């Protein structure tokens, strides 16, 4: 009977903690991702704390402590991404307005994706970076250096024109070119990886030039490793 009561008390603590965290996300504009991270951290920390507390005979206290610690860690994680996103959006405002760059939150808000239109960044059919592309990557490098606690995965894509093997090679070369350039601007190469995906994962139709232009892109995925 006491075991059942302990589990019920633990569940109540987790429910209350999660409700508070999620309520905060819904009521404070401008800090949605920070508070979403806090809510996720609250639940995750509470579950871990309950497990540890149950082993020591006090699951309710363990859940409460774990929820509090998890909330702080989750809020820090979300804030770290919020700050990077704000900085990138401010620096790349004109390029975003011209649809040359897109900055989006992905993976349920846990990562940041910077999408580069290859027409702006590369000469046609090559992996040679053009001047405007280098200028944009300078800004991206500055932000990455400002927030060093993150992994950076760079992925190249093409449209469906040409052979699959050619597109695969070109997408890999372009991803590598972006990685090399960021490295030349001081971004630690041990944080980065480069991969080509060829014509896979299109984000628009390949039956029109406008759609093909969107599919020719390089994406920079930024995922914090700590808060």
TrEMBL record:
Residues 1-25 form the signal peptide. It is found in: Cell outer membrane. Its main location: membrane. Keywords: Cell outer membrane, Membrane, Signal. CDD domains: OmpA_C-like. Residues 109-226 form the OmpA-like domain. PANTHER family: LIPOPROTEIN YIAD-RELATED, STATOR ELEMENT OF FLAGELLAR MOTOR COMPLEX. This is OmpA family protein. It comes from Thermithiobacillus plumbiphilus.
């Amino acid at each position: 009977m006491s075991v059942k009561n302990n589990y019920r008390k633990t569940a109540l603590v987790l429910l209350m903690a999660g409700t508070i965290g999620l309520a905060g996300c819904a009521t404070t504009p401008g800090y949605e991702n920070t508070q979403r991270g806090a809510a996720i951290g609250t639940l995750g920390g509470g579950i871990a704390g309950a497990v540890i507390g149950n082993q020591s005979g006090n699951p309710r206290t363990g859940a409460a402590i774990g929820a509090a610690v998890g909330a702080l860690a989750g809020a820090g994680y979300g804030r770290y991404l919020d700050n990077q996103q704000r900085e990138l959006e401010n620096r790349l405002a004109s390029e975003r307005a011209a649809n040359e760059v897109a900055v989006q939150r992905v993976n349920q808000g846990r990562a940041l994706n910077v999408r580069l239109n290859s027409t702006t960044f590369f000469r046609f059919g090559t992996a040679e970076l053009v001047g405007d592309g280098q200028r944009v990557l300078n800004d991206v490098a500055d932000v990455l250096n400002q927030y060093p606690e993150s992994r950076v995965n760079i992925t190249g894509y093409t449209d469906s024109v040409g052979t699959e093997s050619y597109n695969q090679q070109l997408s890999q070369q372009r991803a590598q070119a972006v990685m090399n350039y960021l490295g030349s601007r001081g971004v630690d190469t041990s944080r980065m990886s480069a991969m080509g995906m060829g014509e896979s994962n299109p984000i628009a139709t390949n039956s029109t030039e406008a759609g093909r232009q969107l599919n020719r892109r390089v994406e920079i995925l930024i995922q914090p490793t700590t808060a």
